[in-house]
Amino acid sequence: MELFPSSLRFVLEQVPAVAREELEEIRIRENRPLEISYGSRYSFVREDGTLTDQHREAFVPSKELCRALLERVTNHSIYAVEEELRRGYVTVPGGHRIGLAGRTVLDKGLVSHLRDIAGFNVRIARARIGFASQVLPGLLDFKARTIRHTLIVSPPQQGKTTLIRDLARCLSLGDWGHPAAKEWGSRKVGIVDERSEIAASERGVPTFDLGPRCDVLDACPKAEGIMMMVRSLSPEIIIVDEIGRPEDAEAINEAIHAGVRVLATAHATDISDVFARPVLAKLASDGVFGSYVFLSRVGGKVEHRIISAEEALQETSRTYSRTIGATPRDAPWETKKPAAMNGSTTASTTLVTVKARSMPVIRSPNPLEARGFDDA
């Protein structure tokens, strides 16, 4: 709260407790209504802190307020966070990411930085102790007494970062969550925290509980950080968030051939999306990942589905229900719940046929054709 100018802080401090406890995003847009999201809901916020679904009744942040907020977020030095501005966000103490919207400035066709910033999305980072307890047992490699190489997949804001944070804690503690693994020891975990969200380090020290055997490279590019970890910190498991660039894939391949297990996340809806993204498709088709975890959050609940590499390849060549993460978060849970979770043998969602195909030869495949939006 200390980051916000006093007038905005006064409004937010009066938000009802039930919303504050589940607060996930605060959206501040210049001369437009103040909005928050909590649980699976969103509301506009009046000047007295009460909530409404009528945007015309909401508190409207002024240009001066937004300028003051930017000064506070950047610690009065935009140049000090120039690299983060180029990527469209700033991470502040506590691991909270503030997404920025405004006018982009290009240099040779690439975004060099942002200016005229008039929109802020404050994403609240929270630790969820125990969040990983139902997922980790399904990722175990009993022969090697560790986890399989795993990719966690979901659209944004479904809990990927929260899950890998708790998985790091469990692995570092040796809390495997399975009776057959109760004699296993803990593992050395290395986290490459490019966006400072997983560990929320301050001056190099994590502020989230990551267990006793965890090392963090903070604000370090993933590909470079993975190689630094392998060369100098001898991790048994490396954790990275939001992979997708060619250099990420190259570094992951180097790590797994150096005997290190990899736990990563990526943005996608389902396995067809994984195979539609060139870098992820190459990793998947090469059999890099032994397990895939798909997260879906609907109606305030987070569900997960774990499939093996073999099942992933099978799913790309058969008709299946596009349900994981494909519906709005505020959709009725029972109507959107996957058939397998309902205990039913008949899916009520639209079917999409995905045909197996080789690695795309173009850099960016046609998104409409790849995702099957004509049928969805």
TrEMBL record:
Source organism superkingdom: Bacteria
Recorded protein name is Stage III sporulation protein AA
Q: Does Nucleus appear among the keywords? A: no
* SUPFAM superfamilies noted in UniProt: P-loop containing nucleoside triphosphate hydrolases
**Is Nucleus set as a keyword in this record?**
no
What Gene3D superfamilies does this protein map onto? P-loop containing nucleotide triphosphate hydrolases
- Please list the residue ranges annotated as the AAA+ ATPase domain: 146-295
Q: Keywords in UniProt for this one? A: ATP-binding, Nucleotide-binding
One GO molecular-function annotation for this sequence? ATP binding
One protein family per Pfam: Spore_III_AA
InterPro entries for this protein = AAA+_ATPase (IPR003593), P-loop_NTPase (IPR027417), Spore_III_AA (IPR014217), Spore_III_AA_AAA+_ATPase (IPR045735)
SMART domains named in the record? AAA (SM00382)
